[in-house]
Amino acid sequence: MRAERAAGRNGGARVAPIGRIMLPRAASSALAVALVATLALADEPKRDLKREEQLRKDSVKVQSEHSRDLEPIVRFAAEKGLKARAADLVATIEKITPEWKTLDELKKLAESCQAASPEPADAAKELDKKLRYAQENYANHLMKLARDCGQNQLFTRAYDLIGDVLDAWPDHGEARKIRGYVRGPGNRWVSKNEAKLLNDNVLYKDKKGVVLGWVPKKDVARWDKGERPFAGGWLPEADEIEKIRTNEYRFWSVESEHFEIRTHVSRAEAWKFSQLLEDYYSQFFRTFLSFFDLESGVKLLFDTQPLKKKHLVYYYASRNDYLNHVKAEHGNDKLLLDSAGFYTQGAGQCTRMSHFYQTDNQDEVLSTTYHEVTHQLFAETKEDKSGASSGNNWVPEGIASYIETWGKDPKTKKWVPGMNVKHERLLAAKQHLASNPGWSLARFVAIDHKEFHESARGLNYSLSEALCHFFMHHDNERYKEDFVRFIAAYYGGKAKENSLFSHIQESGEAALETQFKDYMAKLGE
Amino acid sequence: MIEQRRGFVRSLVLAAAAACLPAVLLADDKPITASEFKKAFEGPDSHQGGLAIKRLNPDQGTDYDLLKMVIDKGSWYYRGIAVSVLAKTGNPQNVKDMVDRLTDRTEAKPLVRQGMAMAIAKMNDRKLYPELMKVLNDKDNRVRRQAAFSLRIHKDKGSIEALIKRWKEEKDPRVANYIRETLEDITKHFKGPNPQDWDTWWLKVKDGFKIAETDEEAEAYAEEAKQAEEEGNKLADGTTHAKDVDLAFRSRGLGTPVIVLPHYGHSKDVMIPFFIEIEKFARCSYMDIPKIKDFKNLAKEGKTPYFPIDQLVDAFEAFRKTTKYDRIAIVACGLDSWIAMRYASKYPRNTAALILVCPYSSLAEVHKTTANLVKAGEETGDRELQHYALTRTVDTKTDEDDHDKLHRVQSIPKWEGEDEALTRKHYTIFFGDQKDSLLEQLFEIYENHPGSILYPEFKVENEAANVPVLVAYGLKSLLSSPSDCEAVAKHYGAIVVPFKESADLPFVEEPEKFSQSMRTFLAKYVDKKVKK
Prior knowledge:
The complex is a heterodimer of chains A (about 525) and B (about 525).
Chain A: E1 2-6, H1 30-41, H2 49-79, H3 83-96, H4 103-112, H5 121-151, H6 155-168, H7 173-178, E2 181-183, E3 189-191, H8 192-200, E4 201-205, E5 211-216, H9 220-224, E6 227-230, E7 233-236, H10 237-246, E8 252-255, E9 259-263, H11 267-287, H12 294-302, E10 311-316, H13 319-329, H14 334-337, E11 341-344, E12 353-357, H15 362-380, H16 394-403, E13 407-408, E14 415-416, H17 424-435, H18 441-445, H19 449-454, H20 457-477, H21 480-491, H22 500-503, H23 509-522
Parallel strand pairs in A: 9-10, 10-12
Antiparallel strand pairs in A: 2-3, 4-5, 6-7, 8-9, 11-12, 13-14
Chain B: H1 2-16, H2 34-42, H3 46-54, H4 61-73, H5 76-86, H6 92-100, H7 110-123, H8 129-134, H9 141-150, H10 157-169, H11 173-187, H12 195-205, H13 215-219, H14 222-230, E1 236-242, E2 245-252, E3 256-261, E4 282-287, E5 300-301, E6 304-305, H15 309-323, E7 328-333, H16 337-346, E8 351-357, H17 363-380, H18 383-390, E9 393-395, E10 400-401, H19 402-409, H20 418-428, H21 438-443, E11 453-454, E12 469-474, H22 482-492, E13 495-499, H23 506-509, H24 511-525
Parallel strand pairs in B: 3-4, 3-7, 7-8, 8-12, 12-13
Antiparallel strand pairs in B: 1-2, 2-4, 5-6, 9-10
């Protein structure tokens, strides 16, 4: 039957779907066509658990072999008084094979050896040669593993292995190319984006060595004189700063490979932020690869071609500036006024931007940034039809909040998703669940946007974050892939109030609720 | 063999995929030629038109002239973008030109004066604020209204006196509403609808007055806010619960109790600024329709429920009881007028009057409207209107609307920004004047969609005609027809008030006439009969 319907766009909610960031058509190059064709040969990804297990074993074997190759080099370094080098090599062994049988002995050896002063040059050269051989061998084995993982559609694992290749052998050409690097000036490896920019630009630093962003080479002399571009001409820096800061619609715009940061804080802050976001960007795709269809996901992860339109981020100099913007451009929306930041969707002119503001608490600012940019990356890298989903408001807020639990390993400086198990929201959720044993998972996941934000909003954020942490990490990431596919269903407009339980098929509703409560009871203990 | 080939190709591709180096495109930054601009601006795609405007350089002569042209001739959406681009200019000559164009001595076109006022306000240059305050005295009410709104954004103590002074002379209720709201926003005080009260207060406090910069400071005025609420000067929030749904409302005013219902999918926030004159003689309770999913056991066709008219009628009756008035009047727009009509049928003794804005007489008329919209879009080349209209009809078996079907059957991909464009189009056609900056302001607050519903069978002839009714309609409406509105009026023996300059929101576009019509109507038919 055909009927007249009064509908908001996308099934009744005012979430205008975002025009998808159009990924460049693969047909633009023969190799890219091959990639698409290759991926098209594979239908829906079918997990071969046996093969995955074998690849895991092969990884362990390769790592063990490398530690075995490094051990005599450690002993050589210790013997020759190359103390610092010995310690570094022991740290490497510990990182890749924490259970290495002679690890303790090697640690003692490195600690107790006498550092030769000066360092014997011949011995150092000899050590470099031995190490180079071992590293190249290791890197080549890892590269083969990466290819094997790729063939089995374990693209995240392949991505990680290529990262390991570069750790072992930073000059590995094939790995560099796959990770999107090319040779730049001075034979240095640079990203494709940087290589293109270096043709006509420099990464400009002020007199204190603070990076301000890319500046055309032809303008460097002016910048060195303390002039800044403004309104088609040039102004002394102090004047430019004053003019920019009074007017929200002028701003400093600093671009990195995937982001454009607009701000009134300063160029230096904008550049710093852009680098933090770039660092987050690849980790995001690595973690949420299953959110995308196979072709899009691989392209995004391996960054095969630059974005046509960068992700736009607006960083206000103060909360007052932020509030004025909400008043001027967003109808003084109460929810936005009460938030630390937001990501705009919708059909007005201020759309598809993250907004947040500077405070004294830099950690809080970063937290908000990652939170909002998560919303943004989900919405802008795939067509957003979440308005057609019902309930499940915990998903977008939970996953963005969950990102706030990510941290950096102090030794490797690499992202560790979910590292901060003492995050305040996780603790709040833990406490709430302990005090409210009757809390219902089914009831919670059915909550829609209105109820989520109008009733016990803070608690809802906490529980959402906790749920996402559970699904991403419980029992060795058992539910992770299914959960990420559920996120995809939500953003694809296909999730209903109780859809979660049909996506996480291994366990029923009651079992999941029990597991979640147990997980939270033990988290951080 | 296949596995080996896949593996080989994959490894080859993985190794070489990074060799592609297409150019990075930065759409907003790239300069635009005059012919490119003209094509986009005059074309059917508002997303592309908006992008073209963003690429204009406000510091450059020819682009600056194009921006002025957009402000003069463009839709509200285009004008809003042009204003934001203009606000960026650092070219002192252009700034001077913009200031000069604030007055009708130099600029005859009111929309250009309006646009310049918006752009100058956005620049946040305190030196220019006195110029902006002068715009409060412009001869065009749209320009004055915009000046009053713009002064709200960056709080300035100097604005307060200028606003109060203007308000004392202001005849246009819409401008007066805006002035009042801006004063309340800047000062966080609520002195009521009378400018003299504000003037008296300001004379007492102005020397020591400090504008509250933070919420904490504003909280200090909370006591006064509560008192203002009790005196009917501030909106009071409330909720009633009936038949499993919560009816949230905001009330203000003194006099005949009136439920005010916007168009289906619109927020009550789009009504409130324009009913302030009406609040002088009516206690208005502004309501949003509750979320459809909160209703239980609704009749459905396929996945979509029917509009729950009877349940809403009962919810309103529950609300009426909380007011303790024996009768209430209802203002209802478009589809929501069916609730009002059914309420009057079921509770005639509790219905003081109905004020129906652009009502439909039947489901058949709704079908006609949709067909007319599709045709109008096709005939005028307004692709966005045509596509929007197609979204109104759905196959309940497949849940696919005619718009998605068109794209699917004709294999037309959705163009970039299409969904946002259709949202804007749906909103814009409610207005007769589609250029005014008012539309940009309201766009951010207008929507509060309860959820998709199907229009049920309805015929006004089946409803009892036993209460006083006023039917108001706009002659520029695409969504309703004069003949159909007259048919509704005929059924009720209603007073009919056509609005020449309006589409479906006459209380927004011709507020003076609307409030006068309502005042006369209520005074004649209602006021003496309503008791608490």
